[in-house]
Design brief:
There is one protein chain. It contains twelve helices and eight strands. It is α/β, with parallel strands linked by helices. It has two domains: 90 residues, no CATH class; 205 residues, P-loop containing nucleotide triphosphate hydrolases (Rossmann fold, 3-Layer(aba) Sandwich). The strands form two sheets. A five-stranded parallel beta sheet has the order 5-6-4-7-8, with helices on both faces. Strands 2-1-3 form a three-stranded mixed beta sheet. Helix 3 packs antiparallel against helix 4, helix 5 crosses helix 12 and helix 6 crosses helix 7.
Length: 312
């Protein structure tokens, strides 16, 4: 990947001025990162960023207005990649200018590929804070003993006492664990929003609609976009868990395989909850560019929210 170069590496420094008149040095790396939201590859994005840098260098000015820079970038993207990518870029910049913190939530049962999609999505969106509910659960386990909250200390597909193997008992244990972890996750997200920071949250503990509703009450200025990731094909789900067994031995791959039926039933319940809550679902096995589809939905929802006045 090309290194992050700013215009100061060449003849002169170009300052990008925002609406308040505050200037920051133009950076090819930051520009390329913003272009990734269009779905273009990294190398292509850097080539376009280099062309934009060249255009700025050829101007008889050491400053450029941020909105003018967006127009220049849109034009360069259109010339290099076509109208669709240019429209995506301009829509994303409009969304970012709304000034609202963005919280993207990716829920789904174990083994569907949430972590992989989250990593790709964070890169496309330029979000550098990725919160996993598994990590939050581990923190809670260190401060809350099993005698106080036993559900927290079992896997998401196990019942508390380990004796009642019925689906009802095991799902209720999962729901209680998800609610406990979800409350802590909401607190983390709320703090990030207070600081004006965007974040991407992923994990099996995100019950569809609940974090969005909680943040809507606590932090109405935040834009919370929620999706449920699924694997409709059970054979593909089995394949994902099998690969995890060999590539990530620390993630209880064998136990996940043994409990695939329960994991699939949890997915069914999550899908029902998502439908009731109006949370969109995406099948990870879709032949389309799933990451870009999610980015497009994020941009669409942010633009819708941007039309509403801020309450701050």
């Amino acid at each position: 990947m090309p290194r992050d170069l700013s215009i100061q590496d060449e003849a002169r420094l170009i300052q990008v001025k925002d609406r308040a008149g505050v200037g920051l040095p133009f950076s090819r790396g930051l520009m390329a990162t913003s272009i990734l939201a269009t779905g273009l590859g990294t190398e292509h994005a850097y080539r376009i960023a280099a062309r934009i840098a060249s255009v700025l260098q050829d101007r008889n000015s050491n400053e450029v207005d941020a909105e003018e820079l967006t127009e220049i970038a849109g034009r360069m993207i259109r010339e290099s990649a076509g109208d669709e990518h240019a429209k995506r870029y301009l829509a994303w910049r409009r969304a970012k200018r709304s000034g609202r913190p963005i919280v993207v939530c990716l829920g789904g049962s174990s083994g569907v590929g949430k972590s992989t999609i989250a990593t790709r999505l964070a890169l496309r969106l330029g979000v550098n804070r990725v919160v996993t509910t598994d990590a939050i659960r581990e923190v809670l386990r260190t401060v809350i003993p099993p005698t106080v909250l036993p559900e927290l200390h079992v896997s998401t597909y196990e019942s508390v006492d380990g004796q009642d193997g019925s689906f009802g008992a095991r799902f209720e244990s999962y729901r209680r664990q998800a609610r406990a972890v979800g409350a802590a996750t909401s607190a983390v997200a709320s703090r990030l929003v207070t600081e004006g920071r965007s974040a991407l949250i992923e994990g099996v503990h995100l019950l569809p609609g609940e974090l969005r509703a909680d943040l809507a009450e606590k932090k109405p200025d935040a834009v919370v976009v929620e999706f449920l990731l699924i694997l409709g094909d059970e054979r593909l789900h089995l394949g994902h868990l099998t690969r995890r067994l060999h590539s990530e031995p620390g993630r209880q791959g064998a136990r996940n395989l043994e409990n695939l039926e329960m994991i699939r039933r949890i997915q069914d319940e999550l899908r029902s909850m998502a439908e009731q809550a109006g949370v969109e679902e995406f099948d990870v096995a879709s032949p389309e560019d799933l990451t870009q589809r999610i980015v497009d939905q994020v941009v669409h929802q942010i633009e819708d929210r941007a039309e509403a006045p801020s309450t701050s």
